[in-house]
Design brief:
Order of helices and strands: EEEEHEEEH
Number of helices: 2
Number of strands: 7
CATH class: Mainly Beta
Shape: globular
Number of domains: 1
Strand order of the largest sheet: 1-3-4-6-5
CATH architecture: Beta Barrel
Length: 144
């Protein structure tokens, strides 16, 4: 099983960009303090994709505390000097914004969880292009 769960603070503002194919990607690093020695920290690179990348690039800033769940991935590439470089990073499935309300860079309340497959609906998607009203549903009408 390859799963990582981390809580840490952003060490720098996220870097948001799009691939040549138009897919959003956002990278940032977090400092995670060690369990038995709070004076030491590990600095881990995080990668987010698509809608999760859009939201991380929009709402995260340096210093914010986040919870990250994802998988550890290693890859290699050839550097400009011709040498092979190796990178280990966390590819995030979810990012929890843990900074308190009013913290720098977020207007999302006390905490928000964003997932890689989250697509925030807009009003047209919920109610149709003509708008609409919300109709409450009685508990007796539910199939469960």
């Amino acid at each position: 099983m390859n799963q990582a769960q981390l809580i840490g603070r952003l060490t720098r503002d996220p870097e948001y960009r799009q691939t040549p194919g138009g897919v959003s990607v956002c990278t940032f690093s977090i400092a995670v303090t060690r369990r038995f020695n709070r004076d030491e920290a590990d600095f881990l690179n995080i990668v987010t994709w698509r809608v999760l990348a859009d939201n991380c690039g929009k709402y995260l800033t340096k210093g914010q505390q986040v919870g990250v769940t994802g998988r550890i991935q290693s890859r290699s590439y050839d550097g400009n000097d011709g040498k092979k470089r190796y990178v280990t990073e966390i590819v995030a499935d979810t990012v929890d914004f843990l900074s308190p309300a009013g913290a720098k860079g977020t207007n999302m309340g006390d905490a928000a969880t964003l997932r890689d497959d989250d697509v925030p609906p807009d009003a047209d998607e919920l109610f149709g292009a003509g708008g609409g009203t919300f109709t409450p549903v009685d508990d007796d009408d539910l199939p469960f």
